[in-house]
Specification:
The protein is an alpha/beta fold. The protein has helices spanning 2-22, 67-80, 96-108, and strands spanning 34-35, 47-52, 58-60, 63-65, 85-90, 113-116, 119-120. A hairpin with a 5-residue loop joins strand 2 and strand 3.
Length: 123
Amino acid sequence: MAPMIDMVFLLLVFFMCVSSISQAGLQVKVDLPDSAESEVSDDFSARIILSIKENGDIYLNGRLASLEEFSSELSIIKQEASELKLSIRSDRNTEYKLIRRVIEVATKEGIYDYVYSTYQAGF
């Protein structure tokens, strides 16, 4: 009985840690744009969360980074995991030229799968 209790405790701790890590990139508050056609992705594996604030600040998985730091971080992450996906959470007032530069940097690093996050509006 004691080994089973130990396993349940370890699983509980594991899921608590994974849950908090998976939500780290969502801690950056951005005012997402509305969309009548938005869908929730079924696959969140190997997804990097990138948040772009209205003032141009870039947050990679919840941590502030410049465009150069973003490029080097992607290069390091890409070496560890070959199939990466980028989830872009951009403020509705962010200029598209900044979003495009971020996408160009990610493409140079070999990331071609993007998801642009929006609120599903009830139009």
